[in-house]
Amino acid sequence: MSTVHRSHAKVALIFGGLACLAMLLRLFAGGAVGLADNGDGHRLICQLGLRPAPMPDGVPGWAYANPYYEEFTWYGEACSAGGTGEPYLSTQALLLLGAKALTPLLGSEAALDLRALGILCALIFGVAIAVNFMVMPFAVWLRGVVVIGMALVVLDSTIATYFISPLSEPAGLLGTLFLIAALFRMLRGRRTTVGAILLVAFAALWCIADKTQTASYLVGTLLALFLRPAHFPWAGHWVQRLRDAGEDAAGQKGPVRPSRLGAVLRRGPAALISVGLLAVTVQFQGMQARHLGEIYTFHQLFVEILPNSPTPRQDLADLGLDPNWERYSGKNILTAPLVWSPEYEQMLHLRTADLVSFHLNHPDRLAGLADRGMVGLTRTRASYLGNYLADSGAGPYAKECRVCLVQPLLTFMRPIRWFVFPPLVFGAAVFGAVTVFRRRSPLAARAGAAVVVVFAASTVVQFWAVMVTDGSNDLDKHMIFTLYGLTLMGPLLVATVLTSLGIGSEPGASSQMAALPRQKKASAPASSWFGSGRNSNAWFVRSRR
What is the helix (H) or strand (E) element at residue 143, kind and residue range? Predict the structure, then answer.
């Protein structure tokens, strides 16, 4: 490791250590804070053989965070998604297992103390910040600005309180930070390696397997995987041998086309890994409990479509359902008597695809759907879930605000949401795309722009994934990943703009294509396709021609 890299590693450790310490202080200084369980935590926690410790008499379950869990044996459908007997799958289960192993070290008498999960998440958060600092292709000072911005997003009360909760979100929230680092590792050079592509795919898969709605990460990740060709140091030798064989056999270059072999080798790994990532995502979605899809279709119809429809009876008829179901409009799956009626069998034939098709056939309602989504986004936090423990002295449903930057900002933006969110996201996506494909953009700017495009695409898909599944039901909680992607885009976009202006690029990487001579295709040596020499970027010149 060079002296410069050792120096960067030391600074990265400092930033990571400070981030971890800041998270521990904001979670525990003055008493632990977290997020109450809205009932979704049970389907994950029960699979670990646990149940929540009893709350004090007369205390509502959603009013306070309860970090204590005790051993319990569940049987049959009592531990499943919605009592269906089907398991609930999430990468968060691995973090909960780690927290369970750490619990005895805290001296807690509980079988699982979610405060141990908070400590574990703080440690992982610190590692994520340090890794991001190391791999970013920016000047040291700009790396510091970006990771501080990212840290403030995660430390905010809208995000950090999930780290002491039984809900599944923490795995995806932390995994997103590692996905950013993996993307920078893959995109920081003119070429990449198969290992770097695999890291991106693994980080994306971790996030995708956290919740059904985080499948939106697939879209941005697939876009990114093809932005850099894979580098094979050994391939230049074999391509040259193929060229020589062609010359010997024909007296000139003809039947052997090493350029085609090079194209396959460069883009083949990304194609294969993309197919694998897509297949695993589809498989994971198919393995999730069917009851989740049932909940989504019920809420989309009775909480989203019918209450906001000028013709609810006609809408029900168009979907092949009883128009008299209009009386259940506005009720969720827990409160609607329809669920216990024999008529409910009709609902089981309704699919999310049918409801998406319904929205597409009523484009005049999409603006209202988007508007309700943006209003829910600006609320930032579930109002019905408390953050304090029952013995803290705080009132029921009280919200902590130790680091509160996002909520007041988005509350201010609510009246002007149409002038903020669509221009911000689509403007960032367009600017990023132009920068990525602009030949003379600094390499650091192109890497940052690619990450911005990934998150812009994933954020838009995530927004609509929420709106066409659970819809307006529990919208302020379900928009958490949309909010997260939107706020993380902020520091990344700032860094991209600065580096595109030539400010803050890593020394030696400020310009990429300005000095490249245009070469004739036949004169390029084989090493220019795969090697690390002076002509190693000739593939880009050819592709542009």
Answer: helix 140-155
What pLDDT, in 10s, does the model give residues 503-545? 987 765 444 443 334 444 443 343 333 333 333 333 333 333 3
251-284 b/e (C-beta count within 10 Å ≥ 16 → b)? eeeeebebbebbbebbeebbeebbeebeebbeeb
Which residues lie across from 312 on neighbouring strands?
none
Q: Once rounded to an integer, what is the mean pLDDT over residues 78-106?
A: 86
Within a 10 A sphere around the Cβ of 145, how many other Cβ atoms? 17
Query: Hey, what amino acid is at 512?
Result: Q
Cα distance between residue 222 and residue 209, in whole Å: 16
Distance CA(262)–CA(230), nearest Å, equals 10
Are 158 and 480 a contacting pair, CB within 8 Å? yes
Are 49 and 73 in contact by the 8 Å Cβ rule? The answer is yes
Give me the residues paired with residue 389 across strands: 65
pLDDT in tens, 172-204: 999 999 999 999 999 988 888 889 999 999 999
Instruction: Taking the CA atoms of 107, 110, 115 and 119 in sequence, report the sign of the dihedral they define.
Output: positive
Tokens describing residue 506: 């890593």
Sign for the CA dihedral angle at 11, 16, 19, 25 comes to negative
Residue of 93, 26, 31, 91 whose CA lies nearest to 67: 31
3-class SS letters over 9-66:
HHHHHHHHHHHHHHHHHHHHCCCCECCCCCCCCHHHHHHHCEEECCCCCCCCCCCCEC
